[in-house]
Automatic annotation (TrEMBL):
Protein origin, superkingdom: Bacteria
Pathway: Isoprenoid biosynthesis; isopentenyl diphosphate biosynthesis via DXP pathway; isopentenyl diphosphate from 1-deoxy-D-xylulose 5-phosphate: step 1/6
Gene: dxr
Sequence ranges assigned to domain 1-deoxy-D-xylulose 5-phosphate reductoisomerase N-terminal in this UniProt record: 7-133
GO molecular function, one term: 1-deoxy-D-xylulose-5-phosphate reductoisomerase activity
Domain 1-deoxy-D-xylulose 5-phosphate reductoisomerase C-terminal: 145-228
Gene Ontology BP, a term: isopentenyl diphosphate biosynthetic process, methylerythritol 4-phosphate pathway involved in terpenoid biosynthetic process
Annotated keywords: Isomerase, Isoprene biosynthesis, Magnesium, Manganese, Metal-binding, NADP, Oxidoreductase
Function according to Swiss-Prot or TrEMBL: Catalyzes the NADPH-dependent rearrangement and reduction of 1-deoxy-D-xylulose-5-phosphate (DXP) to 2-C-methyl-D-erythritol 4-phosphate (MEP).
Protein name: 1-deoxy-D-xylulose 5-phosphate reductoisomerase
DXP reductoisomerase C-terminal domain boundaries: 260-376
């Protein structure tokens, strides 16, 4: 047991969390799950706690603190409740690495506190660095933060054995989503059901909508800026429809190193757990003899204006990405509930960015205040539109 890497998974019932647990099942001789958190899906949380025999679980949604399903937790399992609970279950010596797979800005505080406490973090929450990169990255020690997003994990692997100072550019790949090639007029009538049908990736609802608007790629570009210490001009978005090239790094001499593989999040999750080793594949392999072709294109930043807004926020920096992210979360939720058209998402975000006075990032509390302001501002914009 002492040779096992001891894992905590925050957001264990979501898409990334459940795939991480599958990796842990497949490599039970190498990984031990010791702590799990969930927001509201307490039945799944209890089921996973029993399966993996975890020491601690956390529930963060007050509406589910007293769910009957929590009575099914193992006798030796401690239950933590509250907004801080997911972080508290990780602050024990028996946790070697924490997968932060909480969706949205809620993961910011978790990532900040875990890094400050010296914990190794497998980061699947891009908003942590989009919003708080200026605060978090100066605290990160070598090897302490391992990217789980498929694109950032790909770039990280392309850099192994290379000198980052010899980089010409990073090619950040994008599937183009389900609406590739559509005009803005055609996008106006898109429904939530249409947008949730991603062509290649299996993800949660919010991230799937972000992929459809290309906001996901805009957020990833800002995240890459922080992770790899480069400028926005050094990160070029390229459409790769088959989603088999997960990103590329081009070096000064013209050489390009690409990371290719199956469109399966278990692969980057496993690499974060196994780094610097490589374990047996957790997903079906790609037979490159059957692909036929790899297609490339440029993104349409006029039809998909979220990508353009993210470029603006990333270049302006400071607190602008915080507003971008918070307003987008509110707008996406409104779209999913039928209160906003698809093209209304970027319109709400743009209006919030336009009314915010940029500040330099100084504290976590400042970012949380601006996040709250941006959410209120976005809700007001939506209320006025609906009204």
């Amino acid at each position: 047991m002492q040779d096992l890497k001891r894992v905590a998974i925050l957001g264990c019932t979501g898409s990334i969390g459940t795939q991480a647990l599958d990796v842990c099942r497949q490599h039970a001789d190498k990984l031990s799950v010791v702590a799990l958190s969930a927001h509201s899906r307490t039945s799944d949380l209890a089921m996973f706690a029993r399966e993996f025999g975890v020491a601690r679980v956390a529930v963060t949604d007050p509406d589910h603190f007293d769910d009957a399903s929590l009575c099914d937790l193992p006798d030796a399992c401690s239950l933590y409740k509250g907004s801080q609970a997911a972080i508290d279950i990780c602050m024990h010596e028996d946790v070697d690495i924490v997968l932060v797979s909480i969706v949205g800005a809620a993961g910011l505080s978790a990532t900040y506190q875990l890094i400050a406490a010296g914990k190794q973090v497998a980061l699947a929450n891009k908003e942590s660095l989009v919003v708080g990169g200026d605060l978090i990255m100066p605290m990160v020690k070598p090897g302490q933060m391992l990217p789980v997003d498929s694109e950032h994990a790909a770039i990280f692997q392309c850099y192994q054995g290379e000198n980052p100072r010899e980089t010409h550019c990073i090619w950040l790949t994008c599937s183009g989503g389900p609406f590739f090639g559509r005009t803005r007029d055609q996008l106006a009538s898109v429904t939530p059901a249409d947008a949730l049908a991603h062509p290649t990736w299996n993800m949660g609802a919010k991230i799937t909508i972000d992929s459809a608007t290309l906001m996901n790629k805009g957020l990833e570009r800002i995240e890459a800026k922080h992770l790899f210490n480069v400028g926005m001009d050094d990160i070029v978005v390229v459409i790769q429809r088959q989603s088999k090239i997960h990103s590329m790094v081009e070096f000064d001499d013209g050489s390009v190193i690409a990371h290719l593989g199956a469109s399966d999040m278990r692969i980057p999750i496993q690499y974060a757990f196994s780094y610097p080793q490589r374990w047996a594949a957790p997903a079906p392999r790609v037979d490159f003899r059957t692909i036929g072709s790899l297609d490339f294109d440029s993104p349409d930043m006029e039809s998909f204006r979220c990508l353009k807004l993210a470029d603006y926020a990333g270049r302006d920096g400071g607190t602008m990405p915080c507003v971008l992210n918070a307003a987008n979360e509110v707008a996406v939720d409104a779209f999913l509930h039928g209160d906003l058209p698809f093209t209304g998402i970027d319109e709400v975000v743009e209006e919030c960015l336009g009314t915010h006075a940029r500040q330099d990032v100084e504290t976590l509390e400042q970012l949380l205040d601006i996040d709250a302001w941006a959410r209120d501002a976005a809700r007001e914009v939506i209320r006025c539109r609906v009204g």
